[in-house]
Fold:
Amino acid sequence: MNKTIKLFAVANLIAIFNCLGQPGNVFPEVSNSINYEIGTLKDGYKEGIWEYYDIPGELSLKVNYDNGQLLYLIPDTSDYAIQINGEWFNSKVDMQPRYVGSMVEFYNILYANIRYPDEAKSNSTVGQFYISFEIDTLGHANNYNTINDIGDKCSAEIIRALQLIPNIWLSATKKDRKYVAKFILPISFKMELDGKEIKEEKRKNNTEIVLPLAKVLETIEIKAAGFTRRN
Structure:
């Protein structure tokens, strides 16, 4: 029997859930052959029961938007980085922190909005870096930080796109207590010039990158291509 869990305090329900229904952020009855988000919209807002799938045919999340209840959350026994008394620990949790929606849609929003910065294209800036962010006990993503920044506004572009995602998450919960959790999003900027991939230049004082404790998400790859102008 699935346990029904209150997502938010009643006083905050309407305001928080309405944030998800802004036009352009959610889609009723996804028209693709694979439905990752299934539900209905009314006047641009989600209503009733919505189902979310991260992979085809496997229910990940089920939410009732009429009363703000979490009806189902796929079990997850992996470790998550949570903050306890100001320090970070990898720990199992009773309810994992996650985006309230399909992770497919999470990535779709990023890919639909990220642009290769003009400055980065002009300077042939390529490489991998990371954006860390936290999910607080209210279910909001914040504290975006860049690790191994490659410059030329690439990290700023990723953070801008992340902030376009509806900011509604489940908080990490363990023994009826909520904790701040941390995620890391790896990003790879790649560029081809005349059909040949540009290699990342070695940086001065290059040292091994040590990532903080965090749940690492799937890598985002941003690609650009160009041709040498010939007279």
Q: What stands out?
A: Residues 1-33 have pLDDT under 50 and may be disordered.
